[in-house]
## 1
Amino acid sequence: MIEKDSPIPIYYQLQEQLRKQIEDGTLQPGDPLPSERDLSETYGISRMTIRQAMTNLVNEGLLTRSKGRGTFVAEEKIEQPLMKLTGFSEDMKQRGIKPGSTLISFDTVAAPANVAKHLELDAGTPVYEISRLRTGDGAPMAFETSYLRQDGITIREQDLEGSLYEAIEAQSGRKIDKARQTIEPSFASDEEARMLTIEAGSPVLLLERTTRFHNGTVFEFVKSVYRGDRYKFIADMQR
């Protein structure tokens, strides 16, 4: 019940009631929530108040909105450690999740200036450009665009069906050793939202990584956009 005479804001009361139902399992991941209209009639409060409570829970990652379908309880987030270098497929397999990949484009392009800088090449140098939609158990997880140097590496389309890192190590005879990665919050563009089946402007995690072989040679620059409602990154720290 909503206590309309309480000093606690009505939107906050509803927000916490929904949170409790999610935490105690009354509402399960993937369950649809009633419409704003239905909730408004059930609780006798305005749809604007309903919308504020649900938006707060969406921003926290407990709910997710799907355009044209409604609002749902978010799936449990996948944890990825920040201290270990793994490819997407390797990471999914370690968590008992079946990795999947849909190839969007695969071509040789002239490296734009910012890409060439990351790959330590001259602008305009031919590089591989690979765009893929990465999935876990069939659900969209990330939209990824990779740029790879071509000197000493030959990428075939069949190499993109599984772990690209494993294919590169096997084909080049070189060990992938380390990477530098940045993570920042962002909002999904129209294309990213379409690929990830989320609303444009939804919170996402933007990752950029430069990866090197054991001898220090950089071979890859990758930009990945992860669904903010399905992923979280963790780091163990010690003082």
Note: The chain has two domains: 10-73, 78-234.
## 2
Amino acid sequence: MRILVFAHNHPDLHPGGTETVALDLARAYRKAGHQSLFVGATNHLHREPHPGTSFQAISDSGDELLMWAGHFDRFNMSQIDLQAFVPDMRTLLESFRPDVVHIHHLLLFGVELPVLIRRVLPDVRIVMTLHDYYAICANDGVLMKSPDEACAALGSGGLCKCLPEAKPNDMRLRERFIKTHLEAVDEFVSPSAFLRDVYVRWGLAPEKIRIIRNGRPDAAPAKSRSADDTPKTVFGYFGNLTPWKGVEVLLQAAKLLVEKDMEFELRVHGGAPFQNQEFVKRIEKLFEETAPRVQRLGAYKPDDVAGLMEPVDWVVVPSLWWENAPLVIAEAQQHGRPVITSGVGGMAEAVRDGVDGLHVRKNDPVGLAIAMATAAGDAAQYRKLAANIRKPPSVSAVAEQYLRLFADRQTAAREPAA
């Protein structure tokens, strides 16, 4: 098969979970003997446009490209500059002529992409993996008014409390605009049952959404320390430092533990790109107040994870929103580390409370501090949870699931109607 893979960035430019999963799968398709081309969208935050073409190289590899798509309406998820975008995308589709198009995100490309693909290649199979809630939520897909208030307008086309300038009609038109374009997609995939259920509530047909879990590339597990002879427990945070990822709550919990003079270490891995300056100032103050027990270690690359995981006993994922299938949880489980996580969304689905990790209330620094203190003082619990960890599937195994899906649908498309 010839498989064209779209994502809203490239891990070399923005090491997010969706981009990483998309590129891993594109490479797995090639290893399985298929032709795959990965195309990541980019804009002026990472690249400037090149005169005469939307496409740029990302490496010496001929099977990974960037497409500059800097004119984008975020509210409607719409590609503004269709006059430039359409001819270049048509050229790409007609040149590569894929059997299957696997879309991982429509940011920057625009929700018009599936319809354009269908018009250029009427018989191509279009599969879209749903990684988050951007299609539903105009407020960066978080589906939250506040950490304690979920979106009240889910599926109703009602007033958006987060964007007061958006009138009810704006929201209804946005919903209809996006749903109409998504009708060109043959089948959707969700990495979690929770996210699938949210999209069904929004109005996607349940029979069109299949669940396929995300996988991880094969890697030797990071060496674990003995919980019996460890002088202090080491917690690890991995990911961008953003308000919705809950890093502020984690630092507040760490401050409480410092004030109690508890022996522990918290290693925080990740940068804070494009964040509100007030938020940045707040977390910088918390880092100062919790040093040296809390170490801010900065951004990292996916290849660094195994080494960074080695000194860590527990991984903490304190997100405030309904995460779908956080990459960091899969990475922790791949390396045999129990996870302390907010018991909501796909996080509660990925980590079994009291079995292979611990759930805490979201946005609760006191509750998180108690959980961390309890975890640090119970070596027997650590051994039990670590022994029960389910390893995530390999990327190659997940790619095989997708390839069977692609092949099944191609066969169904070729069979004459009864």
Note: The CA atoms of residues 148 and 170 lie 25 Å apart.
